[in-house]
Amino acid sequence: MNNKRQTVNGAKRWLSRRHWNYIRSLVYMLQASEYIIVDFLKWHERVKDFRFVEKRKHLTFTPKTVILFTLGWIVLLATLSGAVFVFYTIASPWNYLLAALLVFEAPLIAMVSLLFFVICMRFAQYPVEQFFIARTKKHLIAHRGIKIAIAGSFGKTSMREVLKAVLSEGRKVAAPGESYNTPLSIARFVKELKGDEDVLIFELGEYYPGDVRKLAQMVRPEWGIITGVNEAHLEKFGVLKNTTDTVFELAESVDASRLYVNGESELARARSKGGNILYTRSGTEEWQVKNPNTDLSGITFTLLKNGVSINVHSSVCGLHVLGPLSAAVHIASRLGLASHEISDGIAKTKPFAHRLEPKQWPDGVTFIDDSYNGNPDGARAAIEFLASLQGRRFYVTPGLVEAGLRIKEVHEEIGKQLAKAGIEKVVLIRTSVASYMESGLQAGDFKGEILRYDDMPSALAALRALALPGDVILIQNDWPDQYA
Amino acid sequence: MGVYTKNMRKNIAVIFGGKSAEHDISIITAHVPIIDSLLVNGKFDVWPVYIAKGGSWYADKAMNNLAFFKQDAWEEKVAKMKKIGLLFDNGLELVWPGLLSKKVKIDIVFPAMHGTYGEDGSLMGLLRMAGAPFVGCDLAASAVAMDKVLTKQVVAAEGMPVVPYVWFTRTEWKEDKETVLTKAKTLSMPVFVKPVHLGSSIGMTRVKNEKELLNAIEVALHYDDKVLVENAVEPLIEITLPIMGNDKPRVAECERPLNKTEFFDFNDKYLANGKKSEGSGANSAYSEVPANIDDDLSNKVKELGVRVYKALGCAGIARVDFLIRADTKEMYVNEVNTLPGSLYHHNWKKAGVSNMELVLELVRLAEDRFVRQKETTYTFHSDILQKVGSSGKVGLKV
């Protein structure tokens, strides 16, 4: 039976590569893989049907993709024309053989051509990129604003948003709105600055060793925040030490007394040095967090410093955000913001899009969108928050991606956490990591129910049919197309 | 959810649309929650069977998605589809005729039709003839419930309270208006004038004086050939109660419609506040569930609801509507609906029954009834044909 299924799947894949949509799929896959050829090839190997790779997103036509799309079709049609030419010009039987080879392998030739073109573009882009980096460095040296850089395996965007909201009460703050964390995207952001900003906040993305150093040298931050180190992107880094080394490249550019490190992240705390400021959900050395409480309306807590207390509320959910808030408060205080400005700033922090973002379905079901949160620490925080809520609780996940060699342990741990938290329903998407989570649930003596679906849209449709008023549904991570 | 291969799945036909004023509502009911729940459950191969306003039948899986019916010119797209036929060959089969003909044996039918030619028992009669198990009330209960006068007669005969009413046919009205008006004037104003067979308050008028009565009757007769005139209950608490089950019915929550206009009309029911009821089926945000009435009244409503359900011989699902005088708490049975819009899933959810549980339970109830119906013998062997003479007389009273 399995052999038959494998043969059918193989035939479907072979035929789908000869479908007219194949070129579009290739271009989409290149775009979604950010033109990283290794990632593209891994994805290409996994695809079962090339007609349907655009599930969650669709190909965006940019000058680059238009060129690739056109090139793909030109190569494909040229190869087929070549087959006709060969058929009529070469002597039998070689004409049959060669023409058939060209016809059948035209998709492969088109794909190789596209990859070759992407490599050529990269070489061509290099000097352009260097030019933009140099120009950005120059702009930033001339800019009067304080530069704060954020690095870490997770939580960078949340940290940026918290910091921006808090500092904006007393200072003019600029920070890129999206995940602008590569040299070119940062260059784009810097180009749009007006020059009168007091504070500039940057996210430094890390995919390979040296990435953070390169960005830090470009930005030249005076202040730094390390949000933590975990298994996110471990597939690229290989071992956690490499991730830690890369994230802590930021420390090379910032004075130790202005480097904030997440004390709740074991690896980050272990690498921190004397003089660094550790922040946790209990606060920092100067600012203590007391009486924290969280629910769907956000978090409420008291900040204490030298006998002065401030009662604050943020509509961001989850106690895990107390750490970033404490770091932001500490920095705000050192930059001279008054207590009332700090509390007003915290009050203006809002739930971040797709990160523990609560929504209400019309039938009284609470839906928590944590679909952009795909790292072990984020999952732990989400489970902790879900466990604190009332009602029948559903935890929906396809698992995490890029956990590398620790993929099994990471997912077993999530299963154990879910069991320990007493979540009533765990909804698993049938991915390569689902069995690890099930093992973890079993090991944790999970008492609830496990539901399984083929993909996230099916799971969401089913949940609409299964949910009752008062239920809470949390969506943890949604795999992009390249991992589905 | 488990993985069900095609061979393990049951073929279920969800029939909707039809020659009815509630054609569009039926499309919504069919999808939310019925088809949506059946599809995600994975145990069924769902065949959407759409009956066009003209009466043609179509079955194409593209119609499993409600979005199909929201696109422009969807009716033209339907008209281009191959019409299907039905075969009653030891059950029900859908047949796509033509060169590439196809047949699909249907294991169970889920009627999702409101109003005439569907909810009124017509479809149930057809399915009984086919010998196919189907969800919901059977022919007799559906036919009685569709006729507001027959419903009141059955309910009153069983000793349950109904408001004073009179009724007449179009012929009676045409032949002798005076007598009909005299009959109607025996009631105290205000009264409601209603077409007997229509739902969703179509053609219904609240009449405050005799002057308005004539016009209201003409309006009602425009939609139906039988008209009911009944006393208005004021001050009014309107309560509606969904019920599910065969022999042992269970009730959902008492629900109080939040009337925006003088009475609860089509727009209140389906387009409250002018908002589309997208994603919530045919009913959303127009009622209070559970109704804010005291427990004693709520229990009486539920008790009476079950009595009505049983008296009419309902099965599967139905909704019983009540009129209650707010000051005296006098309670009257108003009418019975054998296919509540979108199965009143919003109410069942409040009662702790999810869409999936509701739909699957209704399928189970239908199968259960079908098994029990098989225990009944409908034919018997006789030698009457041998005894019959050439004149056709056998000397027996038949």
Describe this entry's structure for a reader.
- The complex is a heterodimer of chains A (484) and B (398).
- Chain A has 484 residues and is an alpha/beta fold.
- Chain A is built from 17 helices and 15 strands.
- Chain A folds into three domains: 124 residues, no CATH class; 205 residues, Mur-like, catalytic domain (UDP-N-acetylmuramoyl-L-alanine:D-glutamate ligase), CATH 3.40.1190; 127 residues, Protein-Tyrosine Phosphatase, Chain A (Alpha-Beta Complex), CATH 3.90.190.20.
- Helices cover 48% and strands 16% of the residues of chain A.
- In chain A, the strands form three sheets. In chain A, strands 2-3-1-4-5-6 form a six-stranded parallel sheet, sandwiched between helices. A six-stranded mixed sheet of chain A has the order 10-11-15-12-13-14, sandwiched between helices.
- Chain A is globular, with a radius of gyration of 26 Å.
- The model of chain A has no long low-confidence stretch (mean pLDDT 91).
- Chain B has three domains: 126 residues, Rossmann fold, CATH 3.40.50.20; 67 residues, ATP-grasp fold, A domain (Dna Ligase, domain 1, 2-Layer Sandwich), CATH 3.30.1490; 127 residues, D-amino Acid Aminotransferase, Chain A, domain 1.
- Chain B has a four-stranded mixed sheet, with helices on both faces. Chain B has a four-stranded antiparallel sheet with strand order 8-11-9-10. In chain B, strands 13-12-16-17 form a four-stranded antiparallel sheet.
- In chain B, β1, α1 and β2 form a beta-alpha-beta unit.
- About 5% of the residues of chain B have low confidence.
- Classes of the chains: A alpha/beta (484), B alpha+beta (398).
- The interface between A and B is medium-sized, with 15 and 21 residues.
